[in-house]
Amino acid sequence: MKNNRILLQDGTFQERKYENAIIMEQERYEELLMNDTREGMVLAFIISKMDDENELVCSLDTIAQALHYSKASVARAIRLFRERYTDLVTIGKVGNTSRFTIDRNRCFKA
Predict the structure, then answer these.
(1) CB distance 46 to 102 below 8 Å
(2) Cβ atoms of residues 94 and 58 within 8 Å
(3) What is the CA radius of gyration of the chain?
(4) What is the secondary structure of the chain as a DSSP string?
(5) What are residue 83's phi and psi, to 5 degrees?
(6) For residue range 43-75, what is the model confidence (pLDDT) as tens digits?
(7) What is the pTM of this model?
């Protein structure tokens, strides 16, 4: 299939191989990383751990421990997502745990 190949400079094709590749709308992601670096790292963690349904269910403590941030820093990131990035990430609850859903039109795993 041509859709699964990359054209190289020498005119030959190479099979495209994605293993847990993440495709994301660059402009919105760069905006977050440039302006809110810590929050951008929280989002990067969520995206890297999301399942095939673009969801991650985990506690703020889990994220804080994984990134070596305080729980308050993670909570600030979540608040920012709710205020300014609702088009990118939706946050809900499953019991006492948070559910993060990333918009499939803006980001997906290949």
Answers:
(1) yes
(2) no
(3) 16
(4) -GGGEEE-TTS-EEE---SS-EEE-HHHHHHHHHH-HHHHHHHHHHHHH--TTSEEEE-HHHHHHHHT--HHHHHHHHHHHHHH-TTTEEEEEETTEEEEEE-TTTEEE-
(5) -85, -45
(6) 889 988 999 899 999 999 999 999 999 999 999
(7) 0.73
